[in-house]
Amino acid sequence: MRRMGVEALEEAFTRYGLPGIVNADQGSQFTAGAFTEAVLGRGIGLSSEATSFVSIARTQENC
Q: SUPFAM superfamilies, from UniProt (predicted)?
C-alpha cells in the first residue's frame, strides 16, 4: 500500500478511534506489509477472505 494510503488509514484512526477489527478484501493494497503493520501494530484485528480472523482483545469501544 502506498504511504499515502497508510496515512489516510492513520488519519481515520485518529479521527474516529481504533476499531476492534478491520475487514478488508484480498487486494494487494490490503495485504501489503505497510497496511497490515498499520493495523496489527495497533492491536487491531484484521480479517479478510484470505486470512482467518486475528483475535485481539480490545477494551476500547468506538464512540
A: Ribonuclease H-like
Cα separation of 31 and 24, whole Å? 9
Q: CA-CA distances (angstroms) from residue 30 to 18, 41, 60, 63?
A: 17, 14, 24, 25
pTM for the full model? 0.64
* End-to-end Cα, the chain, rounded Å: 27
* Backbone φ/ψ region at 43: left (φ over 0), alpha (ψ -120 to 50), beta: left
Do the Cβ atoms of 32 and 1 come closer than 8 Å?
A: yes
Convert the pLDDT of each residue in 24-61 to its tens digit. 877 777 778 888 888 999 999 988 765 454 544 554 55
